[in-house]
Design a protein that fits this description.
The complex is a heterodimer of chains A (212) and B (419).
Chain A (H helix, E strand, L loop, with lengths): L3 H9 L3 H13 L4 H21 L5 H24 L6 E7 L7 H12 L2 E5 L6 H10 L4 E5 L6 H13 L6 E5 L5 H7 L3 E2 L3 H12 L4
Parallel strand pairs in A: 1-2, 1-3, 3-4, 4-5
Helix pairs in contact in A: 1-2, 1-3, 2-4, 3-4, 3-9, 4-5, 5-9, 6-7
Chain B lengths: L2 H9 L20 H10 L7 E5 L4 E2 L3 H7 L3 E5 L13 E4 L5 E4 L6 E2 L5 E3 L11 E3 L7 E2 L25 H14 L5 E5 L25 H10 L1 H26 L5 E5 L13 H22 L3 E5 L5 H9 L4 E3 L10 H8 L4 E3 L8 H4 L2 H15 L5 E2 L12 H18 L1
Parallel strand pairs in B: 1-5, 3-10, 10-11, 11-12, 12-13, 13-14, 14-15
Antiparallel strand pairs in B: 1-2, 4-5, 6-7, 7-8, 8-9
Helix pairs in contact in B: 6-7, 7-8, 11-12
The chains are: A alpha/beta (212), B alpha/beta (419).
Chain lengths: 212, 419
């Protein structure tokens, strides 16, 4: 019978077919879906994040691993939902208004999902009002804003201002994207900034109060 | 010394005045709004500026503006655009930011009440839209039109539709373009097209009515590790067509051309690379080597590689596959310090770019900060030649004209002092 560590290794290596098979076998052997996520998939994606930070793997390998994780989650999510089990933290993510670039945003979304956040991806060209409405609707712990263009950085500032003005005390805001820096995050009052998809998980965990 | 001589000296890694490029390619130019602002600033006749590249909305730099900016390069580009229609039949269009510009006849936008603008491949509004300029935006982005992927039936020829021999109309166009620059004293930088292997901007094929094959950005990146035989088959076919086209073009162009823009594939992110060195060696290097070797064997042109981002770990590889020039030298990315780049690679590759940061300093700094950074970069990159001044990628919309002028003045002052 496969072990949770086998699942971790399969996800980290991006082996989609093995990941699905091991997930099915673990379920058949009576392992709970929550255990499979938290002790099998999440450690696998954590390895992916670490390897990415160390430049041992790159965007393609990260996408392949995330795809394997997603296939396993397709099996697990209905079981988790019927048992009333939800991830502890909820994150909203999107690319800001006027900006259609989503490679970075999609990577962060996958990595947050892999860290067992419930992730609501609003897509690209997201208005400040849509971020705010989604943050309220889902009682989000975290809102992630992405921008590639220098011309859309002001939209990031507007979004932060509107969310902060709404007084959502339990909601932290994190920003990222090629032209974004920690200095810009400080300037516009964002709670956090991440330079890449690996550190985005560490920062997100810190912001919502989990140990990184 | 003519502009062309300045550029040629720099390309031979010989000391001299620093040559400058504004506008010779789709990656070394300025947004159309900045072009209009510069014309106003320099007191040049004001008229609607041509959008010579409708994807990034780049403006044409006419002879008078090139002279005002001190540009030493002239650009040659193909007949078609990123949206598959030809760059001809100009008419006025009011852009969403209020500027009246000139667009080609095939630029037939669908303007939504929301302010969003859509463009269609080959100017055919019956085809699914392939470009989207969001409300409040300044640039188009490609709309991914990925047909359902069936792994068992994937056929690399479907990803090769865009790689075609030069058509008679292309040859007429190139002959006219070459005539336009013959006799110019500027260095000539040609963007023939068809030699960018796996350029992610081209993968969604906004120029094709109904793209087939792998057209989704994420799926393409996944293909670099999971579908290598497929990618090899695409690149091999692309390379075959490109070499045939290069031979035809070289026969037309001869020594009129100084530099060939070979490839715009981005290998760098802000802090890392888009693929491993091993992937580069296995998948990309063989094709780059064939193109560069052919150019060096048959012409006197230098080959130009554009790649944004933190590409330091790949620069030796770019050199080894035969690239002569690296652009845009994104010094704001990880491990891309100008002094270290110059010390480690400056005698083996020409830096064409790196002049000023278009992510931070140029759009958001003061003219004083721009001048200081430009002067620092000139000092770092210019010793011993091997440097052509250019902004790091295109000057973005909303960049203050005073900052662009501060940059131009700083270059002029530096070259004046050096002389």
């Amino acid at each position: 019978m496969p072990q949770l560590t086998d699942l971790t290794a399969a996800v980290a290596a991006g082996k989609r077919i093995d990941t699905v098979r091991i997930t099915q076998e673990l379920l058949a052997a009576g392992t709970g879906p929550q255990d499979i996520v938290e002790r099998g998939l999440v450690p696998g994606m954590a390895i992916v994040g670490e390897q990415f930070k160390r430049n041992e793997i790159f965007v393609p390998e990260m996408l392949v691993a995330a795809r394997a994780m997603k296939e396993a989650l397709k099996l697990l999510e209905p079981l988790l939902a019927s048992a009333g089990i939800r991830p502890k933290y909820t994150a909203i993510i999107g690319t800001v208004q006027g900006d259609l670039h989503d490679i970075g945003k999609n990577l962060i979304s996958m990595m947050w999902r892999g860290a067992n956040f419930a992730v609501i991806d609003l897509g690209t060209n997201v208005s400040p009002e849509r971020y705010l409405a989604a943050a309220k609707e889902h009682n989000a712990n975290l809102v992630g804003l992405s921008a590639l263009l220098t011309t859309t950085m002001p939209a990031m500032k507007d979004t932060v201002r509107i969310i902060k003005a709404a007084g959502l005390t339990g909601t932290k805001i994190m920003i990222g994207g090629a032209p974004i820096t920690q200095a810009f995050a400080d300037e516009i009052g964002a709670d956090g900034y991440a330079a890449d998809a690996g550190t985005a998980v560490d920062i997100a965990k810190k912001l919502v109060g989990q140990a990184a | 010394m003519t502009s062309r001589e300045k550029v040629r000296r720099a390309l031979r890694h010989e000391a001299g005045p620093v040559p400058v490029d504004f506008g010779s390619t789709g990656v070394t130019s300025l947004h159309v709004s900045c072009v209009a602002a510069l014309r106003r600033h320099y007191g040049l006749p004001e008229h609607p500026v041509k959008v010579c590249e409708p994807f990034q909305m780049l403006g044409e730099l006419e002879e008078d503006l090139l002279a005002a900016l001190g540009s030493d390069c002239a650009g040659l580009s193909g007949r078609g655009t990123m949206f598959g229609f030809a760059n001809e039949g100009w008419r006025e269009w009011r852009a969403p930011w209020g500027q009246v510009v000139l667009v080609p006849e095939g630029f037939r936008p669908r303007e939504m009440p929301s302010g969003d603008v859509f463009l269609f491949p080959a100017g055919d509004p019956a085809a699914p839209a392939s470009g989207h300029l969001p409300a409040g935006g300044y640039f188009f982005d490609a709309i991914v039109r990925q047909p359902p992927l069936d792994e068992a039936r994937l056929d690399p020829t479907e990803n090769c539709e865009e790689f075609q021999p030069l058509a008679p109309a292309d040859l007429v166009h190139w002959a006219a373009e070459l005539d336009r620059v013959r006799g110019s004293d500027r260095a000539v930088h040609a963007s023939l097209g068809g030699t960018s292997f796996g350029d992610i901007a081209l993968v969604p094929a906004p120029f094709l009515r109904q793209p087939r094959g792998i057209r989704d950005v994420g799926e393409w990146y996944i293909s670099l590790v999971e579908r290598r035989p497929y990618v090899h088959a695409v690149f091999a076919r692309q390379c075959e067509v490109a070499l045939e086209n290069l031979a035809v073009f070289a026969a037309l162009a001869g020594d009129t051309v100084d530099v060939l823009c070979v490839c715009g594939t981005d290998f760098g992110t802000q802090s890392s690379q888009f693929c491993s060195p091993e992937t580069f060696d296995e998948l990309f290097a063989p094709y780059y080597r064939r193109i560069n070797d052919w150019v060096h064997r048959h012409t006197g042109w230098r080959t130009f590689k554009h790649s944004c981002g933190a590409v330091r770990p790949l620069i030796d590889r770019f050199i080894n596959v035969g690239f002569d020039i690296l652009n845009p030298v994104q010094c704001s990315a990880k491990d891309m310090d100008p002094g270290r780049l110059k010390a480690d690679f400056g005698d083996r590759i020409v830096f064409w770019g790196g002049g000023v940061d278009t992510q931070h300093t140029l759009p958001f700094g003061t003219p004083t900060e721009v001048r200081a950074q430009v002067t620092d970069r000139l000092r770092a990159f210019s010793p011993g030649g091997g440097f052509v001044f250019n902004t790091i990628h295109n000057v973005q919309a909303r960049t203050p004209v005073a900052n662009i002028v501060a940059m131009v003045d700083a270059i002029r002052d530096f070259n004046g002092r050096a002389a």
